[in-house]
Amino acid sequence: MKHSDTDIIIAGGGLAGATLALALARVAPALRVTVVETFPLSSDALPDSYQPSYDARSTALAWGSRLIFEELGLWSRLSEHATPIQHIHVSDRGRFGATRLNAREYQQEALGYVVDNRWMGLCLMRELLDTQTQWQAPAEVVGMTPTEQGVQVSLKTGSETTTLSAQCLIVADGGRSGLRETLGFQASHHGYNQNALVANVSTSDSHEFTAFERFTDAGPMALLPHGSPAHAGYQSALIWTLDDKELEEVLGMTDRNKCERLQSRFGWRLGRFTHIGACSHYPLSLTTVEEPVRPGVALVGNAAHALHPVAGQGFNLALRGLMTLVEQFRLADEQGRSPGDFQILRRYHELHRPDRQQTVQFSDSLIRIFGHSLAPVAAARDAGLVGLDLLPGAKRLFARKAMGTGGRRADINGPGVSHTPGPIQSRSPGHD
Question: Angle of helix 375-390 relative to helix 342-370, nearest 10 degrees?
Answer without folding.
Answer: 110
